[in-house]
Structures are given as structure tokens and as C-alpha cells.
Amino acid sequence: MGFEPLDAKARQKPAGNVGLNRLFSNNLANEDLLFVEHTLDGKHNSLEVPRAVGLIRYSGSYSIHGSSSAFITAVSTPGTGTVELTLSSGKFSAPLFCRITPMDASGDTVPWLAQYEITSETTISVHLRKLATIGGDTWNATNGSFAIAIHALPYSPATARLTQPTALARGANLAPASWNGLVDNQAKLRSYQLAEHSAGGAHNTKEIPIGFLVYRFSDTNPFIDESLNVDDAVVSGDGVDIELPGSTYTAPFPVFGTAHYDELAGQTAATRSIVCIPEDLITTTNVSVYTYAWDGAGWGFASLGFSVMLHRGT
Amino acid sequence: MAFTKLYKVIQDHALGYQSINTAADNDLAIYEDFNEEHGSGLSASTSWFQRLGRHNAPTIPRAVANVQVRTSAVGVVVPVMSAVSQSEIILSVRRESTGVYFFPAPFEWVDMWVEVTPSGLNSTTRQAHGHYMEPTEGIFVASPQEAGLLVYLFEKDGSWAAADYDFTVCVFGYGDW
């Protein structure tokens, strides 16, 4: 049943059973709307929304930012360049899979690579490689920072639903219980909605970005194609500085990036590109992005477009 | 439109028109706020992202999939999607050649980008990326008009070479999906 707005009632104009029933059915329509891709209490519950998003930060030792301890409970380093994340039991159902962007804290000098290994529903390993020198092709296992999004199968859909008031027949009086049920259900639906959304409807949870930038190079001229909660982006040295509205973000925060492969000159099946976002250069007003490409003999800085997703900080 | 908490009533309480109007406004507030970044359409003819309750925002992936690459007993390499979102964006995957995987697009994708993340043991060094292939690019000789998502997988074993392994692919899109 779809949502149909109800005309405003004037003084001494009776709502009637049709009007009151419309209120009941609109509540039901809102309930139907809210429970798609969300749990009964309003949390997100779909494969494409990560169950957890974190900035795993390395500065001599590892720390977890950006994701609740209810999801990622511990981080350890069984060997240099390997990070083992312990996940909370019962929160993740296989098959798990990840998205990772290197966010090394050693600055803008060389690119990093990251790949993951799922050991169980409670253990993920991330393996990091750092290029030895720009222009070269020697990669070393090295400890570093990274952003990780962990996707998992959705929870079982909620079966229990709200009890909506019984529709009124013509001439029937509205019982207090029916009105009170309507009021209760409205309050519940609003609280579910606000669990991970703002009052205006925007998503409001650490697992969903609050900003993004699509930055393109056309005939070597860079431009912002599309953005949200980003003020500007300017080429700075070998990278691109993204200027942010300071009031929106709390540093540090996870950033996911990917280079636009189709903007590499002379691309072939053997062309490769990497994007890195040093977390030590992130502030509430700036994110620096570095893009690299394979030139046939080694890896060097490359001017090419990229997209980044900016998440809420801790 | 703001949401206003309503009062409950008791027996013989007169329910005024203002309370009725507030209840109607509250329903509308919930509905409109949810429509900001979710679909509300009831018809199957509307796009997936404009259907009832579906997420419809550039900040949320339009589709994700995890692909596991397996080799059969007779040596045939077969990609299998162990998980894929119900988006009608990623529907199938096929292996074109070593390290090259193709997801046919059911319609033309615009204003989008792709993230690819390789999986792998600590003993390997891997790099992967994705690319939307326009219908006019004609990369595949057998079906030059095909459009879709191309994923390239590489592994460094002395030198870099195309390789087959498991990976995650994620599609983001802005604009009118």
C-alpha cells in the first residue's frame, strides 16, 4: 500500500473513518518503507552497506578508529606487513569480503598495496606492501595504516512488525487504544528512522560516507565532476589536495579511493594504477591524494582522475 | 517538515482537528525524510534504486560482489560470485582471459566508478583495478558491442603478470540511477 498524504482538517470538520484509516495506512506504508534493507530497530542491513568501516592506524603500534568496538575488537601484527583484525563474534556471517585503501602514515613518497585474507567469521588478515623507491618495482612487507570496509551477509529479515490499529468502519467511534497505537507507532518509526539517519533523512552512521569527490583529468586539465561535502580540489606537487568544510569532519577518518583507470594515457590490459591517501596528512579541512601508475619499468607519480569516499571520524 | 510527538488520549477525550493534522504531518515527515536517500516507488517498472526502501545515494555502493576463482578438476578456471548485492547491476561474471573478468551491464551505466580489492595470502603481491567498458570500445572481438565492468588482476612473481585470484568489486554511482 502506498503513502497518500492526508488533507489538513479544519475546525469542526470531522476526520471521518476514511481520514483516520488513511492515517493508519500511511503508518503501515512508512513501516514497509523503513524495513527494506534495515533491521527492525532501524540499523542498516544490506550487503552493499558495510557492516563495519575502520581506519586502522599505524604509528609505531596499531589503533582502531572509525568503527565501533562492537565490530572490530582487536588488532595484532603476527608479522611485519601483516595485520590481523579480530571481529566480534556473531556480527559477521560468511562470506565476508573487504574493500581496502592504503592510508600510510609515512607521507607522500611511495605507493602501497593492500590485499586481504578471510580466515574465519572472526578473523581477517590484511597484507601490506610498500614500494621501496619511486620509479622502482621492489615491494616490501611493511606496517602501515589503511582504511577497511567489511561487508557481510545481511542479518535475517525482521519478522515481527508493529501492530497497527484496526481500520474503522463507517459510523464507528475511534477508541483511545487505536489513537494511542497510532501515536506509539509513529514514535517508534521515527526512532527507527533516526537510528542511522538524520532528521532530514541523510545517512548518519560511520559505515556510510558523509562526503565524496569524483576528480577527473580531461586533456590534463583536472576538474571536479561531482562532490558532496567537499569545498575544492587543487593539484599540489605530486598530489591533489582536497579542501573540506572543517565543521563536517572529525580527524582522523577513513578514506577510500580508487584511480580512474580509463583516464590513463595509452591504457592497455597491462596498465596499472594505484591511489594512496596518507592519513597523517588528513585534517578536518584537508585530504591529500596521490596517484601512481606503472610506466613499463617501474611505478611513478601519474596525473589521473580518482574518486574518494570520506567517512565520519571517531 | 518537522516531526512532533503526539499525546495519547483517555476515554471521552475529545480529539481535536489539530491532533489529526499533526498525525498526518508526522506520517508525511517520516515519509519525506526517508525519501531523501531511499526509493519509494511501488512499480516494478521503476529503476531498482527508486523502488520502495532501496538505498539511492551516491555515498552507498550501487552494487558489491565477491568473486571466488576456482579451477575445476580438468583445469578450467571458473569465477563464482560467493556474494552479490540484489541491485540488478551485477548479474553475472565471466572470465575473458587470465586475470581479465567481465560483468555484463544490463543497461548503460553513467557517472560511476569502480573499486576492486584483491584477496591473497601473505606470500603474494597483487594489484587490481576496474573499468567500465563503453558499448563502443569493442574490446571483445566476439561481441564488440558489449558494455560492462572489466576487472584486471595482476600479481608480481618476479615480474608483473595477469593472474587469477579472488577479489571484491564495488560500483558507486551518482546522478540519476
Task: Write a compact overview of the structure shown.
The complex is a heterodimer of chains A (314) and B (177). Chain A is mainly β and 314 residues long.
Description:
The complex is a heterodimer of chains A (314) and B (177). With 314 residues, chain A is mainly beta. Helices cover 12% and strands 35% of the residues of chain A. Chain A has helices spanning 16-34, 176-195, and strands at 52-58, 62-65, 72-79, 82-87, 97-102, 112-120, 123-131, 139-141, 146-151, 211-218, 221-228, 232-236, 239-243, 255-259, 273-276, 286-294, 299-301, 306-310. Chain A starts with 15 loop residues before the first helix and ends with a strand. The mean pLDDT of chain A is 90. Chain B is mainly β and 177 residues long. In chain B, the strands form two sheets. In chain B, strands 3, 4, 6, 7 and 8 form a five-stranded antiparallel beta sheet that branches. A four-stranded antiparallel beta sheet of chain B has the order 2-1-9-5, with no helix packed on it. In chain B, strand 7 (148-157) and strand 8 (159-162) form a beta hairpin. Chain B is elongated and about 85 Å long. The model of chain B has no long low-confidence stretch (mean pLDDT 89). Chains A and B meet through helix 1, strand 5, strand 6, strand 7 and helix 2 of A and helix 1, strand 1, strand 2, strand 5 and strand 6 of B.
